[in-house]
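seq/struct pair 1
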Amino acid sequence: MSDPGMKLNIEVTNPEVFEAIVRRVFNEIKEEQKIQLDPWITQNEAMHLLRIKSKSTFLKYRDLKKFKYSKPMESAKYILYERQSILDFIKQGIVEDEG
């Protein structure tokens, strides 16, 4: 096995083939490791996905039910957001520019 800190120089003559190889290797490693993202994320993670810095903007979208959320405990402070609904919201192109 090679040293993980060792650098490898590769001359790419066909970028499409190289990209296909990298994607295949990544997918095989992902499948092998069974990498799965948690379907429920925190407000900070949701804001990061949306690239929103303003909590008031984020809460406006939440109040408009643009994505799904859950309060698994009685406390209103503990709210989780459904990752897929955030991603779907982004795909819709509804996120407005704050600037």
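seq/struct pair 2
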Amino acid sequence: MTQVLFAVIPVFLLVMILGFIGDENLPLTLIFIGIVILIMVLYWLVARRYRIILSGYHGERTLKNIIKHLRWRDHTAIFTNLPICYNRRRSELDMLVVSETGIFLIEAKNHSGTIYGSEADYTWLQKKYRKNGKISEKEIENPLRQTKRQRDILKSILRSAGLDAWINEIIYFANPKVKLKLDLNEACVCGNEHELIQIINSFKKKIIAKKDYETIINLLADENNDK
């Protein structure tokens, strides 16, 4: 709705400018031109922000659909958009899956194009190959560094309750048009639904006692309710 307004208003003002244009109305004409330029800038900012939000929403929605189809054999709890905080360090987890077979911290990304990078890089390179032959390049934050920060906060929360559970970090690229060319050692990065499901279902051994599982669930529920 906001995008539509920002697109229509400049056209309306332009019509008014054409009606007022002239030497005797020069100050008013300049004011109108300034307003039109301002609105066009605001439109560009809103459109850019909207694309970012829509991209993130699509990635998270796709992730939720995948999780629904996972075949869990044990107790399982799924948290989405979970805010976490410890000693003023804050973050929000796209998805956290807790089961007796492990804890899975999943970060969803919806980047397209070809992604280049390694585990140690601060940033990764995103290349998009246009139909006209041009190539656009953009640096994006290494998502592995983001999940490591999230893991550290989450581990601090668990340790405060006397728990020391292993946390599996998974990066999931939800866009079907993405191509991954990454130099990875142990990091889990998935480029499609099958890989994500395969990784999570590969954990079959119970490593979290039922008592600890219930403690973790209650602790995270409290974290979610407190925010």
